[in-house]
């Protein structure tokens, strides 16, 4: 059955023939998105092959959507599903991403918007298992442990170093770099500081609908340092901020964490872990961009590789723990020819 024909089956028979179905650009995943316009307005349909293979009761998107909504986090409404076809019918929250709004804002409004987004982030990071659930259920059973952090570093090694940047580092240097990555990952596994993280909290996953932030692409949420999502937002591969604003917003995030009793860190420790986490998160992002470019054949992510690598030097210069990895990564840094 054609996918568009399957989508029509989500609607009453008398409406199906009049539906207008158009493709919506999605993220770097196997999911496909469609905007469906009918007599009663528009909706978004997500077609996810993984949904067909998963019990709806354990499907992460549904679990996380309900969890976030129950804690007053604005996420798209769910209006229908067809498990057998792998389809979810969702509220249409428009096309305006936070990324699109940023160039339109002056400094005052930009800072205000990002403080609003950080307010939402801290509400997410405040979520704990309720009294009827346990830490054995997702997302609380998942974390940025050593294995997960190294999976992300290894993804960069495979698709960045061995493919996109093939020949820049020899095998010995790659092995040395992986050892450095393992040490850095170990510094970030601090379960006593873990909170719930969206995992991909950047400007393309925050929609603005009727001037209200709406959070999307939250199905991979897991526990980790509060800096993980803060890094995604403030060291965004798609947006560059004035450093003074970044420092102001880091401080705002930290003070909210303290106010809500979500951290026992001192400010200096928050900053140190922010830089270490930013190094890991940006390296991971480069791996994804290289994979999309060389394996998927999606060139739209390639322009993000250089700017994201460009973030690394500041962390490397600031933190001695990153110095050895920085020396090994030097051939990849912007300014070195491919």
| Span between termini | 45 Å
Strand content: 5-15%
Q: In CATH's first tier, which class of the largest domain applies? A: Alpha Beta
Overall geometric form: globular
Lateral strand order in the biggest sheet: 1-2-3-5-4
Secondary-structure-derived class: alpha+beta
Number of structural units classed as domains: 2
CATH topology of the largest domain: Aminoglycoside 3'-phosphotransferase, Chain: A, domain 2
Oligomer: single chain
Percent helix, as a range, is 40-55%
Biggest sheet descriptor: 5 strands, antiparallel
C-alpha Rg (nearest Å)? 21 Å
In the predicted model, the low-confidence regions spanning at least 5 consecutive residues are none
Q: Report the order of strands and helices.
A: HHEEEHHEEHHHHEEEEHHHHH
| Discrete helix count | 13
Which CATH architecture of the largest domain would you pick?
Alpha-Beta Complex
CATH homologous superfamily caption of the largest domain: Aminoglycoside phosphotransferase (APH), C-terminal lobe
Mean pLDDT: 94
Number of strands: 9
